Fold this sequence. Notes:
By secondary structure, the protein is of the alpha/beta class. It has one domain (7-199): 3-Layer(aba) Sandwich (Rossmann fold), CATH 3.40.50. It has helices at residues 19-34, 56-64, 79-82, 93-102, 113-126, 136-148, 172-199, and strands at residues 7-13, 39-45, 87-90, 110-112.
Amino acid sequence: MESPHPVQILTVxxxxxCRSPVAERLLQAGLDQVLPGxxxxxxxxxxxxxxxxxxxxxxxxxxxxxxxxxNFAARQLTxxxxxxxxxxxxxxxxxxxxxxxxxxxxLKRTFTIREFARMVTALEERGDAWPSSPDYTQQWxxxxxxxxxxxxLVLAEESKDNDIADPYKQGAEAYLRMEDQLAPAILRIxxxxxxxxxxx
Length: 200
């Protein structure tokens, strides 16, 4: 069932060629399986390499998890892009700060992706992950506020535990490290999406 107003999710990193495209394409692929047409996931960079394709190593990661890296061009984050976004997932804490410099009004809709993954898991474990609204896309629009209510339960021991390491120009090991940090967060979010769809 296609939603006339898909939930708008934005992933953000620096160059928009390594981390945020992986998050964009894998979240989109997974959410399309949950509710086709219900979500639109895009990405942008705070200092984007505008027009560039996804880095080859990141493209390989996307393919490994069943997504497509094709037809991508990096774009610069702007306040206009942020205007209608329901949820912003940044790859590092400093990106969150840069997002909020552009638009402070989306404070309660902006998280690092690792932090947000812990939040939805906490909602699930607390037993209130399943809101009563029959409108699944509205559940997702309400989710940032509900996730914020458990932020205090999932604080990172160190601030770096909220971040996805930047692998740009650092070789294969750096991309493996990025995958090890990013893939579990994406999978947690997709698990929440599937379970909440089953209960709605």
